[in-house]
Design goal:
Catalytic activity (chains A, B): RX + glutathione = an S-substituted glutathione + a halide anion + H(+)
Radius of gyration of chain A: 17 Å
Organism (chains A, B): Medicago truncatula (Barrel medic)
Helix content of chain A: 55-70%
Keywords (chains A, B): Transferase
Largest interface: A-B, 24 and 24 residues
GO biological process, one term (chains A, B): glutathione metabolic process
Oligomer: homodimer
InterPro entries (chains A, B): Glutathione-S-Trfase_C-like (IPR010987), Glutathione-S-Trfase_C_sf (IPR036282), Glutathione_S-Trfase (IPR040079), Glutathione_S-Trfase_N (IPR004045), GST_C (IPR004046), GST_C_Tau (IPR045074), Omega/Tau-like (IPR045073), Thioredoxin-like_sf (IPR036249)
């Protein structure tokens, strides 16, 4: 619980998986905060002041100090509030958590979007091959109920987009029997009480997916 | 200094800026280690076993535990050996260090390569514009002798490619008067005793740059 003299604010957009990541981290820690909705395409002056580099949500503001980039924010939350650790304490296990969450952002997230939303079937197929190759690494990595063991941790939160696609988007990323461990994890993650509480409605998630899909399909400038 | 019963091994390729990053971190900490040279294009079975995901140097192996990705390795080194900290201890300052080192990899490094090595002048010019926009953020961020204050830290090590280009490659990234603080930092960084000791010869760096430039200029598969 944040102390009374602390001010924690989250600038987000409903349905953004990167914002949901931060919301899960805050909820796991039990940190009360003020949520401020930002409109994609019409960001506030405050957002642009706090994140002039990427001009994107999420931004966490703690006692006036802004932090951007979801993985950076989660590590900050884990270090600023010690209760209910998100990363393990052992340096080697921490390194693996950082490695796999970085891997998810670099090798899985974009390929996942493209495999579902690219208008051209050949491009979707190419993205799907890349994605399946990457997911196989994650499938092999999954040894317990969650990547973090019996509780969800940094890698689970990073891999959030998998259950979002599998359970919400009506366009599954992969057939359930192709990656059985990821499929089970996906359900367990989605049914975790903290995740359930934080997750926006299906309609809100659809709305975000649809807007992002439209921007991905548009010719790049 | 690593304890006698510890085994630290670095798999690298001479001239790789990402390997030099790790070498600087090890030297700052005073960690003795065995260096194993890997040939780009003909990587060893050991390398492929330790880094099946990216199949790239550097890989650090500590008591049999392999770690890949230079920024992940440096954070590991900083957490496994406590002397001479590379990241600050304050959570907010740590978050900023992570943010800017990530920014360097995402927004500066590739643009820097392209601005110098792309065969097409228009593509070089486009990359140069992107790079200058990114470097302006770093120029504004530089408030002391180093990004880390009076000593080099995580962001300085990440920004290594700037002095490599400015002082070694004979094709400067930017005119010295365009980013005066970065230009001064570049010289200070390059003349830091630990950096000086670790840096390979100009010939070795040229060799690496040349090989990378050739692969960048080749049509992508």
């Amino acid at each position: 619980m944040a102390a009374i003299d602390e001010e924690v604010q989250l600038l987000g957009s409903v349905g953004s998986p990167f914002v949901i990541r931060v919301q899960i981290a805050l909820k796991l820690k039990g940190i009360e905060h003020k949520y401020v909705e930002e409109k994609l395409g019409n960001l506030s002056e405050t957002l642009l002041k706090y994140n002039p580099v990427y001009r994107m949500v999420p931004v966490l503001v703690h006692n006036g100090n802004p932090i951007s980039e979801s993985r950076v924010i989660i590590e900050y939350i884990d270090e600023a509030w010690k209760q209910n650790p998100i990363l393990p304490s052992d340096p080697y296990k921490r390194a693996l958590d950082r490695f796999w969450s970085k891997f998810i952002d670099e090798k899985c997230t974009i390929a996942a979007w493209k495999s579902v939303f690219m208008p051209d079937e050949k491009e979707r197929e190419k993205a799907r091959e890349e994605l399946f190759e990457a997911l196989q690494f994650l499938e092999n990595e999954l040894k317990d109920k969650f990547f973090g063991g019996e509780e969800i941790g940094f890698v689970d939160i990073a891999a959030l987009f998998i259950p979002l696609f599998q359970e919400v988007a009506e366009k599954q990323l992969f057939p359930g029997d192709k990656f059985p461990k990821l499929q089970k994890w996906s359900l367990d993650f989605y049914n975790h009480p903290v995740v359930k509480e934080v997750m926006p409605s299906k309609e809100q998630q659809f709305g975000y997916f649809k807007a992002r899909a439209a921007s991905l399909a548009a010719p790049s400038k």
